[in-house]
Amino acid sequence: MAPDRGAVDVVVIGAGAAGLACAQDLLAAGLTVAVAEASDAVGGRMRTDRVDGFVIDRGFQVFNTSYPQVRKRLDLRALRLRPFTPGVLVHTDDGRLRFTDPSREPRRAADLLPGRLARPRDLLALGVLSARDMLAPARLLTRGADRTTRTALAAAGVSEEFVERFFRPFLSGVFLEDELETSSRVFHLVWRSMLRGTLCLPGEGIGAVPRQLADRLPDGTVRLGCPVDRLTDDGVLLSEGGGTLRARTVVVATGAAAARSLLPGLRVPPHRTVTTYYHAAPASPLAEPTLLTDSRRRFLNSCVLSEVVPGYAPAGTALVATSALGADRPGRESSLRAALSEAYAADTSGWEVVTVQAIRDALPAMPPPHPLSRPSRIGPGRYVCGDHRATGSVQGALASGARAAREVLRDLGR
């Protein structure tokens, strides 16, 4: 007979951002909660490892300070955030061109002079679009008919040339798809967040974010190395003879694949796969913390992470992260390094692979019409949350966890 691991009001399966937010709100309402996490650390995909002295996030990730849930739940100062340059470098057939936010870096305003990256009418259209997205209430951005991002950009007066030169390569790295078929509602909210916030990395890696969330929970709430085999009528059955954990309510806060396994019949959207290649370089190929994209779309984006956070690489070396759509395949790394040599105008023959991170289910596909959130309750005492239930961002994950907690509390009459 499987051992009884005790009883709580709610079992949350998964200690990613959504599960930790859900647990935090349930505990604040006075419920007893256990968070069952299958792996050896919290975070889900927001994990950071150390490999040969390098700080390696599980896939290239950035942290946006403008998200409401982020500001509500996290001590940003304690994360020791280091910012990216407020702009992007685009490698084109005409060389590297810079797209920058002149309100943050006035000295680089000349980079947006007509004829460099965009024509005058594109700059005007971009200014109007950005002002609306930045200043209008968020609820206004989500009203009206949903359409693809490409259609929305065209309707805003952005030329196809500027879309192909800037928006398509840049947004491919944001949405992990290169046809700009993502919901325009999602695009406007993401663009708003970029205009209003700062893209950063925590000094200890992206894994510092879920660690801070977990540290705010009472000791013993999160149970690591505690995989769940299945849900039962009175709680969950843990894998490998781990026993039972009794609860009248279960919240599944795992990734999409695990959620589908634990909740047969659950509908989840298709997901995107991305692969990030981490290279050690003897010297930094770009002496600034700036994202580099490629108008020929041979890669999604590349960045010298040690220019953002020097501690990401041992002294005397640089760490370069480059992401590409889909899974790794034979020969891809060498061809990618050749493209990076051209994009950075640097010799990459001496770069060494530190690790390759292929992230399956990295982001949900979000074609229109796309619901910005979904109900969490799927049956009596059964709830689900996670970024696959929202917009695929940290904000979406945290908000999904908060919604699940609200629905649990409502159903329990709390």
Provide a descriptive summary of the structure in words.
It is a single chain. The protein is of the alpha/beta class. The protein contains 12 helices and 20 strands. It is 30% helix and 27% strand. Strands 1, 2, 10, 11, 12, 13, 19 and 20 form an 8-stranded mixed beta sheet that branches. Strands 16-17-14-18 form a 4-stranded antiparallel beta sheet. The longest helix is centred in the C-terminal third of the chain and has 18 residues. It starts with a strand and ends with a helix.
Task: Give a short overview.
The chain is of the alpha/beta class.
- In terms of structural class, how would the helical and strand content be classed? alpha/beta
- Helix run count: 12
**Which geometry do the CA atoms define?**
globular
What is the rounded distance between the termini? 35 Å
Whole-angstrom Rg = 22 Å
Major sheet summary line: 8 strands, mixed
Low-confidence stretches: none
Residue share in helix: 25-40%
Average per-residue pLDDT, rounded, comes to 94
Tell me the number of strands.
20
In what range is the share of β-strand residues? Answer: 25-35%
Defining key terms:
30% helix; eight-stranded mixed β-sheet; four-stranded antiparallel β-sheet; 12 helices; single chain; 414 residues; 20 strands; alpha/beta
Walk me through the topology:
Layout: E1 4-13, H1 17-28, E2 33-36, E3 48-51, E4 54-57, E5 63-64, H2 68-73, E6 81-83, E7 87-92, E8 95-100, H3 120-135, H4 138-141, H5 149-155, H6 160-175, H7 184-196, E9 199-202, H8 208-215, E10 222-223, E11 228-232, E12 235-238, E13 243-252, H9 256-262, E14 271-281, E15 291-294, E16 301-304, H10 305-308, E17 318-325, H11 332-344, E18 352-364, E19 377-379, E20 382-384, H12 394-411
Parallel strand pairs: 1-2, 1-13, 2-10, 7-15, 13-20
Antiparallel strand pairs: 3-4, 5-9, 6-9, 7-8, 11-12, 12-13, 14-17, 14-18, 16-17, 19-20
Helix pairs in contact: 1-8, 1-12, 3-7, 5-7
